[in-house]
Design brief:
mainly alpha
Length: about 110
């Protein structure tokens, strides 16, 4: 949150990263020379990652893409045919399922 306080009233989740960033700037810069702030780039990246989760989201997208690609390359074995999944597990519908399966078997 912009106030620096988290949802429960304590410090926000990124407050420790902010403290590290602020400490880095205090140590490496002066009022006359701000070029030392370049040393704080890794700390600033950690703080931004805590705020926005950009790197985490990129990693998750890459994992999902790899998983989908692997799933498409090796289809699941013993997967029930789509015709057998009719009731989505509703109770008391076994007769309906049997009737549908028998009508499909008789039509072939």
């Amino acid at each position: 949150m912009a106030s620096g306080y988290g949802l429960a009233g304590g410090p926000s989740r990124c407050f420790p990263f902010w403290q590290d960033l602020l400490a880095c700037y205090v140590v490496n810069t002066t009022a006359d020379d701000v070029s030392g702030g370049k040393k704080c780039v890794p700390v600033m990246e950690d703080y931004y990652e805590c705020l926005h989760h950009k790197k985490e989201a990129t990693r998750i997208r890459a994992l999902q893409h790899a998983y989908r690609r692997a799933l498409a390359a090796h289809p699941r074995e013993n997967m029930p045919p789509p015709g057998t999944i009719r009731n989505l597990g509703l109770l008391g519908k076994e007769e309906d399922t049997r009737a549908v399966l028998e009508s499909e078997a008789g039509g072939k």
